[in-house]
Amino acid sequence: xxxxxxxxxxxxxxxxxxxxxxxxxxxxxxxxxxxxxxxxxxxxxxxxxxxxxxxxxxxxxxxxxxxxxxxxxxxxxxx
Length: 79
Fold this sequence. Notes:
Elements lengths: L4 E4 L2 E4 L11 E5 L3 H8 L4 E8 L4 E7 L5 E7 L3
Parallel strand pairs: 3-6
Antiparallel strand pairs: 1-2, 4-5, 5-6
């Protein structure tokens, strides 16, 4: 057994599986079909910002993923 492994419930588990993320990250992801994506995710994730139109001509929403990262999905508003 290597130094990076330990036993949990009789199984070997790497240290990576037990380490919580120590940094923060915010991702801004440009997508197509944002309304459909929003409808699929709205009741499955923790929303930070609901779907909205911005002054910089984007339609976007923001949520926290299962690892605690903040993700913003955005789509340009057609002129």
